[in-house]
Design a protein that fits this description.
With 519 residues, the protein is mainly alpha-helical. It contains 19 helices and ten strands. 55% of the residues are buried.
């Protein structure tokens, strides 16, 4: 029988989170234990917990290369490596080098590389939460508890489809030109629980997929608002709450060019979420703790048997203690570093005078290197400030944009003021500087979220190209590899940013064939 990736939609994770690998076992949904588990919110939450655990656990989503495949943090890092601001000084052990040098798309025939990993992981998460969503109407428990479980399921599904759309299609809207491409193909959509007999679906349009994202995240927000009195939450930043759902909505709205939606979602987080802009101590202590006042969501990795060992974020990003980072140091582009004011505390995140690795990062460090410990941060409130400021400016609300920037920058640079800034002009590439206020907002967003967010997501939606140069720190080896493969990322609409669909899906899904493959 052919191995069909789409058949992962017939499986659901049923084990509770624990310190063993068994929680990543998946049982058929027609098993009695699976149906029983979803009858009550108090037990269905264990399925949600299992999804979150798999979002930072390596070794299950692909057959090899697991040291660069550890869930959300790995995908964000890969998107940073593909962009303009994070530079790998050398190949090192090879992890993320393919992403950095655009030697990934041709590997779609293998189950060991990025295409398979991203596709399989996100559809696996979708498969899990679809059963939770199906069970919601009959699920026992208080209204708040049921809403809490189902709300997270809808939010996870929205996030997964946003992830898949980002990796396997072009951006739906180019804000530089005002052009949209809603009719272009995106990914298949599954919205209900499935069985072993369920067939694979065809690629849907960007309009359909983003419509699904919008519906799911709005439903998640509605449910999580009802979940205020839940007994299941435990104030856990490893789970998606109302404000994280609003943060996901703001990201989707940015991709869609829905400035009003982005502004309202991000501003609500700022006004109601109870988070605070990070101080110098928050920013310079290794970016490894969910306990900080500015952290909204992440993965709490607090004991050794939860850590992935070498298959983890800090191994790649702690340039002092991380084994892989030592052989492949992560640098900031000289151009971006030179945009940081001398009075900005974030300059301390990099060392331009390092003799072996100029502009090397000091931003990330293990909380405990001996045990490979350090929490993964997926979302911080500062992102919401930059999102709201950008959206406000695009909506011609200059006053709000200035106020938001002055607030977030007050903890970073005492010399910063947005009071006299204006304009929305952007260059054709991300290093074609115009001096506009919009560019200033985006530049500080780039500085703030370096290494955390997946920079290519922004590059694509902004409609700019990337001009990599050795003068900025990119290695000749990397640029030569890109040239040999005819990769040209100076063009904003390039398909070099779009992954190829895994061959196993093409072989097994009768509704997606070779002619449906991305260029």
């Amino acid at each position: 029988m052919k191995k069909a990736i789409y058949l992962i939609i017939a499986l659901i994770g049923l084990s509770a989170p624990s310190c063993s690998d068994s929680m990543l076992d998946f049982s058929p949904t027609d098993s009695g234990s699976g149906k029983e588990l979803l009858k009550s919110a108090s037990t269905a939450i264990t399925s949600v917990n299992g999804v979150y655990r798999s979002m930072w656990t390596a070794g299950w989503s692909t057959t090899a290369n697991t040291h660069q495949c550890f869930g959300i943090a790995a995908y964000n890092l890969a998107l940073d490596c593909m962009a303009d601001d994070l530079i790998m000084q050398s190949q090192g052990n090879g992890w993320f080098w393919g992403d950095h040098c655009y030697n990934v798309k041709s590997n779609y025939t293998s189950s060991a590389f990025r295409s398979y990993d991203v596709w399989y992981a996100n559809y696996k998460w979708i498969a899990n939460v679809n059963y939770i969503i199906d069970a919601e109407p009959e699920m026992a428990g208080t209204e708040a508890d049921v809403a809490y479980v189902a709300g997270q399921a809808y939010a996870i599904r929205a996030l997964c489809y946003l992830n898949l759309a980002t990796w396997f299609s072009r951006a739906p809207y180019n804000s530089l030109t005002g052009a949209s491409r809603w009719n272009e193909p995106c990914v298949p959509v599954y919205t209900t629980g499935t069985s072993i007999d369920t067939g694979g679906q065809p690629r849907e349009s960007l309009r359909t997929v983003y419509g699904r994202i919008d519906q799911d995240i709005d439903r998640a927000i509605e449910l999580l608002e009802k979940a205020g009195e839940t007994t299941l939450a435990e104030n856990n930043k490893s789970h998606i709450n109302l404000y994280v759902a609003l943060g996901i909505k703001s990201r989707a709205c940015l991709a869609e060019g829905d400035w009003d939606g982005a502004f309202k979602a991000a501003k609500r987080v700022i006004d109601e979420g109870g988070y605070a802009v990070g101080t110098k101590s928050d920013l310079t202590s290794g970016m490894n703790s969910l306990d900080k006042q500015n952290v909204m969501w992440g993965a709490g990795i607090q004991v050794a048997d939860q850590a992935g060992g070498y298959a983890g974020f800090f191994t790649h990003m702690d340039n002092k203690e991380g084994a892989y980072a030592k052989s492949a140091p992560k640098l900031i582009s000289k151009q971006l570093y030179n945009r940081i004011s001398a009075t900005d505390i974030r300059r301390d995140w990099w060392d331009p005078s390092d003799k072996e690795s100029p502009y090397v990062s000091k931003k990330f460090s293990f909380a405990n290197v001996a045990s490979f410990l350090g929490d993964y941060i997926y979302m911080r409130v500062e992102e919401m400030y930059f999102t709201a400021a950008e959206a406000a400016l695009r909506l011609d609300d200059l006053k709000s944009a200035r106020e938001l920037m002055n607030t977030v920058m007050a903890e970073r640079d005492p010399g910063y003021s947005a009071n006299n800034r204006s304009g929305t002009l952007l260059g054709a590439t991300t290093t074609t500087w115009t001096g506009s206020f919009l560019e200033n907002i985006l530049t500080h967003r780039r500085i703030e979220l370096w290494g955390e967010y997946g920079r290519l997501f922004d590059v694509r939606r902004l409609g700019q190209g990337i001009d990599r140069r050795t003068d900025d720190g990119f290695s000749e080896e990397c640029i030569s590899m890109m040239n040999r493969r005819n990769v040209n990322i100076t063009k904003a609409d390039t398909y070099d940013w779009v992954l190829t669909i895994p061959k196993a899906e093409l072989d097994a899904n009768p509704n997606i064939n070779e002619e449906d493959q991305n260029p």
